[in-house]
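Tokens as discussed.
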């Protein structure tokens, strides 16, 4: 049977939940404990809207933190559960969650591999397409990172880059990193995504 489901593939950090400012080290990075989890404005609304349009909702995320010993597995799972609970409280269920835990320089050996699933590679998307019989030509990748757009593009998806780009220099960096790949749409925030889906 042909693949017929359409899907929204969504990056986690910066799309579902906000990046966190880690004051102790002065960097903005992925949340490391559940109390740092804050949802991005508009995410619940977008997910509900997409679901009503018949899209499957699939989270696609690189999470090398366990392997590089930045976060322990317990907190990683607690964050994952917090996201699920909060989605459930908003009557949203994901159809799939796919994580790449690898990193070429991981300190924990089993994660230190050159995998085929770490974005911009397409392994996670390909797996979901196979598992859920997804029609890639009707599906989208939504992310706030270069890797989301390159990975989505290479997997055959339409892509939406969320980036509040106000500085020309930053825009030039993004464009040069994307090389010849152009996101289907570039928008400032999640609220603008809703009207783009068709
Ligand atoms: Mg991100």
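Sequence:
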């Amino acid at each position: 049977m042909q693949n017929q489901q359409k899907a929204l593939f969504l990056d986690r950090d910066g799309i579902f939940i906000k990046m966190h400012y880690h004051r102790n080290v002065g960097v903005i990075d992925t949340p490391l404990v559940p109390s740092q989890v804050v949802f991005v404005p508009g995410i619940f609304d977008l997910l509900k809207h997409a679901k009503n349009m018949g899209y499957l909702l699939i989270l696609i995320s690189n999470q090398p933190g366990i392997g590089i010993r930045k976060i322990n597995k317990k907190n990683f799972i607690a964050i994952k559960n917090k996201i699920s609970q909060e989605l459930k409280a908003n009557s949203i269920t994901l159809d799939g969650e796919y994580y790449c835990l690898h990193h070429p320089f991981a300190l924990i050996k089993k994660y230190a591999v050159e995998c085929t699933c770490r974005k911009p590679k397409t392994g996670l998307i390909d797996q979901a397409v196979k598992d859920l019989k997804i029609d890639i030509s009707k599906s989208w990748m939504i992310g706030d990172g270069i890797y989301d757009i390159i990975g989505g593009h290479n997997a055959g998806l339409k892509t939406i880059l969320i980036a509040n780009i106000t500085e020309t220099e930053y825009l030039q960096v993004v464009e040069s990193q994307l090389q010849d790949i152009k996101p289907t749409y570039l928008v400032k925030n999640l609220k603008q995504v809703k009207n783009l889906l068709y």
